Amino acid sequence: MLAEKALELVREQHRCTDGALAPFNEDGIRQVLEEMRALFEQNQRDTTATVSGEVGLFSSIQLRHTALERNKRCVLAYLNNRLEHIKRMRWEFGSVLPADLRYNLCEQEVQWFNSYNRMLANYMRAIGDTGGVDLTQDMKPPKSLYVEVRCVADHGEFETQDGDLIVLKKNSQHFLLRSECEHLIRQGVLEHIVHRM
């Protein structure tokens, strides 16, 4: 069926609702592009035949052209959705993606992530009077400057802004500045301990 493979790409992306990014479907993209090339070549032949005087091919040309447009929209929607997801991951996880998420990206998406990362870092350095502002630091407005955190995995030594060295061992608890540990919380090294009253 025409444009079915392209629609499957969109469905595949739509099924990833839990925030995870499915591996890049290079095979699916290749199949859609091959179908588009075949449709284009058929349209070229029929258009040439129509110009030379053959009648009755206009409907099939128009049908294939519509399928080409649908394939193009589906592939662009698939790629755009992935890029938007990668952009959100940069804000969520910071400048270094976890290995399991990075594994799902194709080479061009990794290059795009690195480029976006550089542009964002340059922009953050350029704003503010004191040499920059970290826009990714507080994704939600903080209620306090210090937070209590528990180490989820062994991380090693961590140097605070005032020069103290803290050893982050699994199950150890610390009281740290939110600005210092926010990126480690997002990476899953630390978890914020919330005391319910």
Note the main attributes of this structure.
3-stranded antiparallel β-sheet; two-stranded antiparallel ribbon; 6 helices; 197 residues; mainly alpha; 55% helix; elongated
Descriptive overview:
By secondary structure, the chain is mostly helical. The chain is 55% helix and 11% strand. The chain has 6 helices and 5 strands. It has a 3-stranded antiparallel sheet, with helices on one face. Helix 1 (4-15) packs antiparallel against helix 2 (26-51), helix 2 (26-51) packs antiparallel against helix 3 (58-93) and helix 3 crosses helix 5. The chain starts with a helix and ends in a 5-residue tail after the last strand. The mean pLDDT is 86. Component of the GINS complex. Keywords: Chromosome, DNA replication, Nucleus. Belongs to the GINS1/PSF1 family. It comes from Batillaria attramentaria. Residues 57-127 form the GINS subunit domain.
The biggest beta sheet is recorded as: 3 strands, antiparallel
Indicate the low-confidence ranges by residue numbers. Answer: none
Radius of gyration: 25 Å
- Derived from helix and strand composition plus strand pairing, the structural class reads mainly alpha
Query: Helicity range of the residues?
Result: 40-55%
Q: Taking all residues together, what is the mean pLDDT?
A: 86
Could you give the distance between the termini?
59 Å
Helix/strand order, N-terminal first: HHHHHEEEEHE
The number of helical elements comes to 6
